[in-house]
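Example S7 (structure tokens).
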């Protein structure tokens, strides 16, 4: 009896021993030939390995910037609409948006190198943008768009923020008339428009490309005017109303500027800024970005004569523009007749 039990015990023990390997990793069951085939997929072929052993891969340092690139400087570069000569001397841009931020930096004492550019060379598709100073030939700083400039230079917030109604005088009254004067007002057949002279010719020498650019700029101006000024989907733009509204806007801004100062009754308005501030604020910059261009007969000629004639009726705005010009750009004066 004991002999049978021992026999049964011994016959069961091998069964347990045989079942244990089934719980282990199945890799032990992969044939050696299959295992070597898997390894060979991820291994480098012998000829290639011998080649790279003889000619190892080398990571070369980055290439230096082209010679034509501006050298490292302590001044950031401000890319604006301008011509090369004016940009070289830091003169004001002929574009309202560029001039706005160019003036903003000047008022905050930020020295920059202005560079003539176009929208096509802008990382954001529009100008202006600021490229911070490179600390070395391999430094590649990120560009800063115009609206991001206040935070970039850590400027303090304007103590006299712009009233939305006052800003709308520029965006919804002055700007539409400004666009219509430049892009949609017919000129003499022999006369060259300011848009062609300032925006198109510096961009390209190709006649076909110039015609395409002029058409696209005009289409963009029409689209903005339609969005702001057309009373209905099929109604034409009332040009007379357009310029009448601009006249009203100049008048309202002149009254606002005069009423904002305690010395409004005197003839000397050399210290007069909007909202009665002791120094120019953001509304002063916004207004100057349009008044200085409208008064600039040397660059815009007769294209802006209608807006210019209306603006010249308000001496307080003309003097304000000249004081802003002198304060931000030195002795450069606008050309008025």
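Recovered sequence:
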């Amino acid at each position: 009896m004991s002999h049978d039990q021992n026999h049964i015990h011994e016959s069961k023990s091998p069964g347990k021993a045989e079942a244990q390997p089934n719980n282990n990793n199945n890799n032990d069951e992969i044939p050696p030939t299959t295992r070597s085939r898997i390894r060979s997929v991820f291994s480098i072929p012998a000829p290639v390995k011998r080649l790279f052993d003889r000619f190892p891969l080398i990571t070369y340092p980055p290439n230096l910037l082209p010679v034509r690139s501006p050298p490292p400087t302590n001044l950031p570069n401000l890319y604006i609409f301008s011509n090369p000569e004016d940009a070289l001397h830091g003169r004001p841009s002929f574009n309202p948006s560029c001039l706005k931020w160019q003036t903003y930096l000047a008022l905050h004492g930020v020295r920059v190198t202005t560079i003539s550019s176009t929208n096509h060379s802008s990382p954001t598709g529009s100008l202006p943008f600021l490229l911070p100073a490179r600390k070395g030939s391999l430094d590649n700083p990120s560009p800063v768009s115009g609206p991001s400039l206040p935070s970039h230079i850590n400027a303090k917030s304007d103590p006299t923020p712009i009233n939305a109604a006052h800003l709308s005088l520029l965006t919804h009254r002055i700007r539409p008339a400004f666009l219509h004067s430049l892009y949609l007002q017919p000129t003499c057949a022999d006369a060259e428009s300011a848009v062609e002279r300032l925006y198109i010719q510096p961009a390209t020498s190709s006649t076909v490309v110039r015609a395409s650019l002029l058409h696209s700029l005009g289409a963009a101006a029409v689209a903005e005017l339609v969005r702001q000024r057309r009373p209905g989907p099929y109604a034409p733009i009332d040009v007379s109303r357009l310029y009448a509204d601009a006249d009203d806007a100049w008048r309202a801004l002149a009254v606002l500027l005069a009423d904002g100062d305690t010395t409004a009754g005197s003839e000397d308005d050399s210290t007069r800024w909007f909202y009665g501030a002791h120094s120019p604020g953001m509304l002063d910059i916004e207004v100057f970005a349009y008044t200085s261009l409208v008064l600039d007969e040397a660059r815009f000629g007769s294209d802006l004569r209608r807006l210019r004639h209306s603006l010249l009726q308000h001496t307080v705005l003309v003097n304000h523009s000249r004081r802003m010009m002198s304060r931000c750009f030195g002795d450069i004066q606008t050309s008025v007749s």
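Notes on this example. The longest strand covers residues 77-80.
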